[in-house]
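Z., the sequence and structure:
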Amino acid sequence: MDFELRRIQLCQLDLALEVKRICEKYEIKYFLIGGTLLGAVRHGGFIPWDDDLDIGMLRNDYDRFINIAKEELNKEYFLQTNQTDRHYGFGFAKIKINNTIFLEEITRKNNTHKGIFIDIFPFDNMPDNIKQQKWHSIKVRLYRHLLLIKCRYLSSDKNKKYKQIIMNIVSVPLLFITKKFLVRKLVREETRYNNKKTINKINLEGSYKYREHIAAKLLDNNLSTINFENISFYTPNSPELYLKNLYGDYLKLPPIDKRQNRHGIVKIDFGNYVIRNKNLKSSDYILEDSTKI
């Protein structure tokens, strides 16, 4: 395990603890998702080669958190949304550490806040009808891509340069469309079914397109808890159902050559930031080599 990657993870854990603090203070429901939940189940913490941390919230809780965090968030941190960062091109929030740098390949040419971060995703109602699901997915992905192009994000697919060419061409007519318009269209589409009772909830802003859904009943009432880096966090009930849907055989380790972080880090700078979690010792910076796990 690279020392620098482990330090990134511990910075992200600090950010997660700040989200946990705010959510518990204001009784906002949150839960670990994606690779973070997989890491909690399979490794007891971060996946050793992972470089991010993901938290989910139901849309109403997400909106409450965003409003409260604007005032409540520790001043060392920055709440990044479409409202707080005019160059930000996603429909979910990030919590970032001020005066640090986590430069990704896709953000090299735009002017967003570049700090070390974690992601906060809203979960919305997923239509039960298969045809509606397909059309819903297409429209959400369209607005997401247009928003990224508008905000000058680069293609993350290094093997298909034509994608970047297409993005550059599309960016010309987008000069006449405001970012505010695209954000409004995106959120309206993502929340289209929230006034109806549906079987599943879905994260439409994640990397798994339309696969990251979970039964609504598993997010009702009291959530389960799980240890992540020896700290208790909330998780959806029956997390194995969510993980199986997302990853298949989630307990099976990927081949060694696939154990890579996915953010395409170009530059990292920790500035003067010091890990705030007093339960972590200097020895916690060291984790076993992921190729031997």
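Helices lie at 3-25, 34-43, 59-72, 130-150, 161-170, 179-190, 239-247. The two ends are 11 Å apart (CA to CA).

Let me know what you think.
H.
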